[in-house]
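Technical appendix A lists one of the benchmark inputs used to test multi-chain prediction within the project. The record comprises three sequence entries:
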Amino acid sequence: MTFFDALDILGTVAFAISGALSAMNRKLDLFGIFIIAFVTAIGGGTIRDILIGNTPVSWMQNTTNLYLIGGVTTMSIILRNKLDYLKKSLFLFDTIGLGIFTIIGVEIGIKAGLEPIICVALGTMTGCFGGVVRDILCNEIPVIFRKEIYATASIAGGICFISLYNANIDQNIIYVSTALLIIIIRLIVVKYRISLPLFTIKTKK
Amino acid sequence: MTFFDALDILGTVAFAISGALSAMNRKLDLFGIFIIAFVTAIGGGTIRDILIGNTPVSWMQNTTNLYLIGGVTTMSIILRNKLDYLKKSLFLFDTIGLGIFTIIGVEIGIKAGLEPIICVALGTMTGCFGGVVRDILCNEIPVIFRKEIYATASIAGGICFISLYNANIDQNIIYVSTALLIIIIRLIVVKYRISLPLFTIKTKK
Amino acid sequence: MTFFDALDILGTVAFAISGALSAMNRKLDLFGIFIIAFVTAIGGGTIRDILIGNTPVSWMQNTTNLYLIGGVTTMSIILRNKLDYLKKSLFLFDTIGLGIFTIIGVEIGIKAGLEPIICVALGTMTGCFGGVVRDILCNEIPVIFRKEIYATASIAGGICFISLYNANIDQNIIYVSTALLIIIIRLIVVKYRISLPLFTIKTKK
């Protein structure tokens, strides 16, 4: 197992926990909890695969992640009242997941020979759209459209990846730089409560 | 026409009626009623086809079902105030639909050479996700995430199908056993008002 | 650049503006505004491409529209308080967009050798489903299911296209006739406040 695989697993675990907590907060039943955990962890990659025509989608070709998500969700349910104390590490895991999944998405775009802007979009979708599908299924306006720099950090990471890639930098350095950039942006944003500007339309009175 | 085809038609009819009634309850207009009936009847199979890369999706390759859904929806609108008396048979039809569509989904997965757990997932998606898309379009939390054993019955049926298939049982016996299992679970669940457990998170006061 | 290309651009521009205004009305942040503008303009075509298996989807193969949508959305944000005066032309652009996108969808269906009813469905999805995805992301019941003749105009246009095509009419005449039919239906419907009938279910008291 490579360092990259380990990070992939960390990302999947973090997203599964985040999905399971989210579902329990919304009082979904046992089945709902598993589905939402599953969707949060693999939704972004699934949408990416569908858009580029990589079918059967990844989780159908390699089922390891399914069992991982199942196990993590079961643990989340058992430990649900203790996870509160894990919130800080959860935020870190989630951010690591965002970093890793962005990298995976960008790289798949490059391998498919797509244009740089599309590679960045694929990275962002892989990183963020699991959460979007989770929020849609739970009947809420996806949180990334409202207040987080979440997607913006992912976009910045994607641009960083593509730039370093075009400069022929060593792959491992690209991975680490991209992930670090995304993590640092998220940490700064959350620490200083930065948010993207809103543009409201004036209505006449 | 085989017995299997007849059941397929029954399932499509039941899901179309259920979608049309659902749309009228939400005061959608004529177009909305047809779209929701259509989506409820073919949504699960469409998501399955997209995920495994079976495109153009089934209803584009064989349009018989489209005309069937159109006719059934028209009848549902005309008879909308009489369908109340049909509720019990509707529940039965709907459950038959769940059984048949689960079988179709599992079998497509097996033919595509996918792993057993994925075949079960495809069966469940084929059976249940029409209703999920219907609820999302109608801006509600999908009902299967909240209180029904619906999906659980479909999963049990899928596991039954795969087990019998691996034991080299005759195909017709597999079909009947799987469908019966799903129907019996649903009947028991509804009769005894069984539901999956909820796991809520304690909040400090 | 052909007349057809010019219309395509006009349609994309109109849908992007409509999406951006919609997002600002819902107080989404900067990222949300761009995503919703993007989804409104390319959502219909994306769903069409996924259903027929035309992947990577169109906007990944030709990125011109992405830059166009980005520019238009930026302008919409800057001019957001002046766009009020443009409402009438916006409605016209939007209707032109519906006409053009319906044509594009029908034609793609014909080229893929699909049945007439499927070609009409593809035209309607290309024209309307960007707005449907926009409404789902914004957590509202899609407006086309509730009060507009929007989709119905698109369906009528699709049927017109197919009929003329089967009669071997010159392609440019088909384009103009289809677009005009859709635009005229929309204008009449809005002017005379026509809407599709609702069918409600009587409840016993």
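The two ends of chain B are 64 Å apart (CA to CA). Chain B has a mean pLDDT of 85. Comparable benchmark entries are summarised in Table A2.
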